Amino acid sequence: MGERAETHIGLRVLGWTMGLFWLALFFGLVDLSVPLVMHDRPEFYANYLLSTGWGVLFTFFVGLPLCFLGVRSDWICAALINAVAGIAVLIAAIASGQPAQLIIVVGLLVPLVAVWNSARFSDHPGIALRRLLGERVRFVARLPLLVLALIAVPPAVVYAAQMIEAARTGVPEPEITWDLEHAPVQAAFALAIPLAAAALALMLAGWRPMAWLIAAGTAWFGVVSIVFPDHFGSWGSFWGWMGVAWSVALALVALVPRRLSRPARPARR
Fold first, then answer.
1. Is 234 a domain residue?
2. Per-position b or e across 197-226, b if 16+ CB within 10 A of its CB
């Protein structure tokens, strides 16, 4: 078996192993489904949105992208979205004064380091890196993603500040998973939305499926916020609809045909 095949197998094993960890053992899918399957459990009712935010982050921004990496080990954008989520958790952990959250950051940065190093130290690093970075695209093709990222920044920062304040004051009573508070993760989820949109603007290999995942996760949180507008951690009805609209726009941007984003070739003489 060649070195390249061994590397791809290693990355696929890493993707599936870590992806399933975040989805199952770290309760990504469980918390994502709380409003659906725990409606008859009153102890979960008040924290529907805190559970949903945890579930969206570790399902759509972390677990599912890693499973995609387990299928396509050259989709560096999947690992990049993990790293973006890690940066968001880092910011929220520092701002809320909860260093225990940093263990999440370490886990989220591992896939990007692994994918990058697998290309860098391959037999043909130049070819491997070009494959990861994907095709050259026109800057104008990146603009819609950058605009969506900028649009998401103000509400994300305001919402994250509210969640960080809740984490620092302990009011309301903290929701805990794996001895980690949900409020900083909730702040990280909000910050990850514009950060991920900006990362998608790089249009690295695999960016379209990642865009659809982020759109789906953001839309789901918007829907839950619309249904439960008065719960702590909800975006409320208006911002819930805005989140759904933003998600639809992101999904549509990812549908733009490749040929429209490629740079024009110079005419032959």
1. yes
2. bbbbbebbbbbbbbbbbbbbbbbbbbbbbb
